[in-house]
Amino acid sequence: MRPNIQLLSARAPQNIKKVPFQPILPMALRNKVSGKYDKQTEGGCLYEISLLFACMQKNAFDESLCSHEINNLNVCYSDYLSKRRTRKADQEKGIITPGEKNLTHLQLNKFLKRFPNV
Amino acid sequence: MAIFRTLLRQVTFQKVLLGTKRSGVISLTNNYSLFPSTFIKGTFIPSEQNKLKESGELQKIAHIPIKPAFNDETSSEFYDPIVRKFTNYIMRKGKKVLARNLLEKTFENVKRIQLEKYNSSSFEAQTEIELNPTVILHQALANCKPVLELMPMRRGGVRYQVPVPIRESRSAFLAARWIIEAAKDKERTIHLPEKLAWELIEASKNQGRAVRRKQELHKQCEANRAYAHYRWS
Q1: Does A33 touch chain B (CB under 8 A)?
Q2: Which pLDDT belongs to residue A42?
Q3: Using the beta-carbon criterion (under 8 Å), do B5 and A25 form an inter-chain contact?
Q4: Same-domain check for residues B100 and B209
Q5: Interface probe with A: pick from B5, B7, B13, B148, most Cβ of A within 10 Å
Q6: pTM for this structure?
Q7: Pair B67, B90 in one domain
Q8: Is B107 part of a structural domain of the chain?
Q9: Per the domain annotation, does B21 fall within a domain?
């Protein structure tokens, strides 16, 4: 009888019992999330800075002609700082509005601590 | 082995928790003010006091403890907050009397220089010359204020000089420091009030070393504009 060519060329399945699976870490998700990627959402004043640079280059670094751009940048920056301050204060207070979809990592961690995974 | 590791992790996790508890206690005690946070900041300026009286705000804060004024804050007509701040920037080793005398002498020199110019110039040109030294100080500081600053930031093991916007208070401080540093770079035989007066007049005309220093900083910021996004990411 001719052997089946397809069966010969195929790789034989590994013996499962030969290499037993060892769980090094517990087989469950941790009750913690990292806050590494939370910062990306915050807006900055990059656009205002670029406008200021363009104006300065046009006027040979004479700021008196770029007062509008400077004012815009200062307003943007103080706004950014105040927003950041209020957000931080809210986070420290731990205010969680019920039914909110976008949670920060600190709020998520608070929830996970209260309702652990395992 | 696996059990050991999980146990170890739990123990270290608990240790971390203990650490946060302790740091929370420390952060509560880092207020070095003599007065507790219940004290509010009052005002020593008569016009502001009258405003409080008229608006009825004074009745509300009548029984709230108020922090005292600093010993160099006066209700005098000649009181100027910028002059007060500039005196403190001149001061070294807490010698306030010396700093005040130096600034007074500087103002005298400014006045003498400007009066000399005033008397030697024609009638039309006289209107252009500013004689008030306080106004000259204000103008000089305003002309030296930078808009941006370079801040070293580490990204991927490399230190980039990142242009960042600065606050009003920092900008005012840098302007004062640059003027004072420019004045201190002098011959041993020249006294500080002479050089400082000269620097102030130059800066008020948008010239001099402090103004040039600001322009150089702005040029450096412009050269590093490619790294500006590191401030926001």
Answers
A1: no
A2: 60
A3: yes
A4: yes
A5: B148
A6: 0.75
A7: no
A8: yes
A9: no
Question: Per the CB < 8 Å rule, is B225 touching A52?
Answer: no
Residue located via tokens 């900041």: B41
Please state the ipTM of this predicted complex.
0.73
pLDDT tens digits, one per residue of A53-80? 999 999 988 888 999 999 999 999 999 9
Kindly give the pairing relationship between strand B66-67 and strand B40-41: parallel
| A45 near B CB under 8 A | yes
DSSP of B121-158? S-HHHHTT----HHHHHHHHHHHH--SEEEEEEEETTE
CATH of residue B137: 1.10.455.10
- Do residues B128 and B96 both lie within one domain? yes
- Residues B43 and B86 occupy one common structural domain: no
Q: Which residue has the tokens 């990306």?
A: A40
Helix (H, G, I), strand (E, B) or coil at B56: coil
Residue in chain A lying closest to B24 (CA): A92
B117 and B62 within one domain:
no
Residue B135 in domain: yes
Average pLDDT over residues A36-46: 70
Q: Residue B6: list chain A partners with CB under 8 A.
A: 25-26
Instruction: Say yes or no: B19 contacts chain A, CB-CB below 8 A.
Output: no
Domain that holds residue B140: 82-233
In degrees and rounded to multiples of 5, residue A110 shows phi and psi of -65, -45
Residue B168 contacts A, CB cutoff 8 Å: yes
The reply to whether B72 and B133 lie within a common domain is no
Q: Taking CB atoms and an 8 Å limit, are B232 and A42 in contact across chains?
A: yes
pLDDT tens readout for residues B132-174: 999 999 999 999 999 999 999 998 899 999 999 999 999 999 9
Whether B6 is in a domain gets the answer no
Cβ-proximal residues to A5 (8 Å cutoff; 6+ apart), any chain: none
